[in-house]
Amino acid sequence: MSQPQVILSTQDLTKEFQGFRAVDEVALSVTEGTVHVLVGPNGAGKTTLFNLLTGFLSPTAGRIVVGGDDVTGQPPERIARLGVARSFQVTSLFSGVSAQEHVELALQAGTGLGRRFWRSDKLMRRFSARAAELLDEVGLGRLASRPAGSLPYGQKRALELALALALYPRILLLDEPTAGMGLEDVDRTVALIDRVRAGRTVVMVEHNMSVVGSLADTVTVLQRGRVLVEGPYETVRADPRVIEAYLGADVA
Q1: What pLDDT, on the 0 to 100 scale, is given for residue 124?
Q2: Angle at 123 (CA atoms; ends 87, 160), nearest 5 degrees
Q3: Percentage of the chain lying above the pLDDT 70 cut
Q4: Helices 183-196 & 153-165, crossing angle to 10 degrees?
Q5: 174 pairs with which residues across the strands?
């Protein structure tokens, strides 16, 4: 049986803002096919680290490697071409465009045709079947013709996940996927991520520790820009350093 492969890693990754170290010599190792979750108190550096991994920020020092390719300082589109797709914390959909059309456009962009300022019906029909499949995968099949602006918040997040999946990612990065959701939407989102993780690697920033416990194979806890603790959820949640870092917050 082959050993699990590391698909995403960092070495001494550092990001400074005017002398302040938001990320401080972080060494991260994400195993292919797992769900790896980044957690930590507010100000721990989670979002900055995520932005470094996806190319939205360039590091001050250190390296980022994706599937054996050094992507340090590379722009987001270069990292995306290596099979990395990101879903953002804040939804950024076109309110008058249908769910189906959103996914068709994402599929078109993945072919290199996305730079065109026009699209023909014939061209978009090439992507309609795959778009329908992706909407089914995220539970929106019956809502394909609905304008994105009319979807409830949880379904907008599901649509954004379909857009990320349209890029055929090897690594799916989810930024606070349950932020702002009620309990029912949180449960649906956990079930959705559990479905779409098959055959992929998922890296998440997540604040809801019940979600972390449901999904994570590995948890990395950040504090003040550094890795505090890393390991399985049950080990991490019981670590006195983690309990202290959260200052009484619910980490159970």
Answers
A1: 59
A2: 15
A3: 89
A4: 10
A5: 87, 204
Is the Cα torsion angle 12, 15, 16, 20 positive or negative in sign? negative
Select from 34, 40, 38, 42 the least CA-distant residue to 51: 38
pLDDT score of 185: 87
Q: Are 214 and 207 in contact (CB under 8 A)?
A: no
Measured CA to CA, the distance from residue 143 to residue 208 in angstroms comes to: 28
Question: Residue 74 has which token pair?
Answer: 């590379």
CA 106 to chain centre: 16
* pLDDT at residue number 117: 42
Inter-residue contact 169 to 84 (CB < 8 Å): yes
Mean pLDDT of the chain: 87
Mean local confidence (pLDDT), 95-100: 92
Interatomic CA distance for residues 107 and 5, integer angstroms: 28
CA distances from 84 to 132, 186, 208, 227 (A): 22, 24, 24, 23
Distance, CA of 56 to CA of 89 (rounded, Å): 14
pLDDT tens for 233-244 read: 999 989 998 888
